[in-house]
Specification:
This protein is α+β, with helices and mostly antiparallel strands. It folds into two domains: 226 residues, no CATH class; 143 residues. The protein contains 14 helices and 15 strands. The strands form five sheets. A six-stranded antiparallel sheet has the order 3-8-4-5-6-7. The protein has a three-stranded antiparallel sheet with strand order 13-14-15. Helix 8 runs antiparallel to helix 10 and helix 8 packs parallel to helix 11.
């Protein structure tokens, strides 16, 4: 004990304290390390990742609720973290938070972002920090072209409605190729998908910071600080959408979807080109239904009393009809988006003969379009072709009767065109 006591005399303790105070403390760790830099190559990978990995349930496992402004920020932050890229987000006052924040040393990190406690704490801070007014600080307006109209492109306005959304999917083979991701207030865990948006671009003299079709600015290091690269130096930077002559500022879907369609075709598509495509979509869907109904008719002709679960499962068209009704809605939207004259589309449909039953005269694709548009179709596998199609042939009058009450002349009056005047 004597020896031990002599080792820790007060003079020794006083000598050790200054050395302890001079020892460097452990550096605080960032949310993640940004070891790469943003480029067009990474923007392409980002778009692909959104297409393949992000859907309405993307945030459900972490129970993070987002509103419209939060959604694009959270998606960008998650990808930036996973790819070791820098991330910055501003608020209405221009303040910035980013990957470099070092306030969560007490929280653990993990390989997968959904299990990374430090990163999840950052996301919770992020959604409290940003609003639609943040977009003016963190994004820049772009020229609309195939290189920019892709998943990740954002649309926002912060003056009246205060709304934002981003392109989530692009499927050129669809009538409406662009699907948007958006959330709303109150914040939700599951966000929504839509093919249309009410966001529009304000014309002069409203400052362009109040609306835009935009991409993210790239964070760069400058004198030891993370800042945004000047927007004028960013790829495809353009103020064209704010020009008073920009024709689509109140209907952005027209501009965005046309760019996708033209790019897929490799040429500018005319109204006639779009009509051919719309007719093809309807024709293919109707041909499937015609085959099903005709097969059911053949079986019922041979055995009118047949009743079986297999028959009902095979020839009931309930789910297929819902798909057909959705297609008809898309056809109407396609006519609007691509400025297709109604009479042009209807004339093309009327010129396509269709046989829906061996017991009925030939009709045309326009009449089937009308029956579907009015939801007069019956999915019931056991009813007659007249009931299945919502139209019967009046032999005495020599005309089609729709829904068992409306003449063809009357129905066509609901679809007025300059070229369809006869039955």
């Amino acid at each position: 004990m004597g020896c031990a006591a002599s080792m820790f005399r007060p003079s020794h303790i006083c000598w050790l304290i200054p050395i302890f105070l001079l020892m460097p403390s452990s550096p605080q760790a960032a949310v993640w390390e940004a070891t790469r830099s943003w480029s067009e190559e990474w923007e392409t990978k980002y778009s692909t990742w959104i297409s393949e990995e992000v859907d309405e349930n993307f945030l459900v496992p972490i129970h993070l609720t987002v509103d419209c402004a939060d959604l694009a920020y959270v998606v960008r932050a998650i990808y930036s973290r996973n790819a070791s890229l820098p991330f910055l987000a501003g608020d209405a006052g221009g303040g910035k938070i980013g990957h470099f924040l070092d306030r969560w040393d007490d929280l653990s990190q993990a390989g997968h972002w959904r299990k990374d406690s430090r990163f999840l704490a950052f996301l919770r801070l992020l959604v409290q920090h940003v609003t639609t007014k943040s977009y003016a600080y963190d994004t820049y307006p772009v020229r609309l072209c195939p290189e920019t109209v892709r998943p990740g492109l954002m649309i926002y306005e912060n003056l009246i409605a205060g709304h934002a959304c981003l392109i989530g999917r692009i499927q050129p083979e669809q009538i409406i190729p662009i699907t948007l991701f958006e959330s709303s207030v109150p914040p939700r865990v599951r966000f929504k998908t839509t093919t249309q948006t009410n966001v529009y671009i304000y014309p002069p003299p409203v400052p362009c910071t109040h609306s835009g079709i935009v991409r993210w600015k790239w964070p760069i290091q400058q004198k030891g600080r993370w800042v945004f690269a000047p927007e004028e130096s960013m790829p495809y930077y353009s103020l064209d959408i704010y020009d008073s002559t920009f024709p689509y500022r109140t209907d952005l879907g027209k501009a965005l979807n046309r760019i996708v369609k033209d790019a897929a075709a490799g040429a500018h598509l005319s109204a006639e080109d779009h009509v051919r495509e719309l007719v093809r979509y309807l024709q293919e869907e109707m041909q499937f239904r015609i085959r099903i109904v005709k097969e059911a008719e053949e079986i019922l002709d041979r055995n009118p009393r047949i009743r079986s679960e297999e028959f009902d499962y095979t020839y009931n068209t309930d789910s297929r009809d819902e798909r057909l009704f959705g297609l008809v809605r898309s056809l109407w939207m396609g006519m609007r988006l691509y400025d297709i004259p109604r009479e042009l589309f209807f004339r093309a449909l009327k010129g396509i003969p269709v046989a829906i039953s061996k017991h009925l005269p030939e009709t045309n694709l326009l009449f089937l379009f009308i029956a579907a548009d009015q939801h007069w179709l019956s999915p019931d596998a056991y009813v007659s072709p007249e009931k299945r199609w919502g139209m019967r042939w009046d032999r005495e009058a020599g005309e089609w009767i729709f829904n068992d009450r409306y003449s063809a002349k009357e129905v066509l009056s609901w679809y007025p065109t300059s070229v369809i005047k006869d039955q």
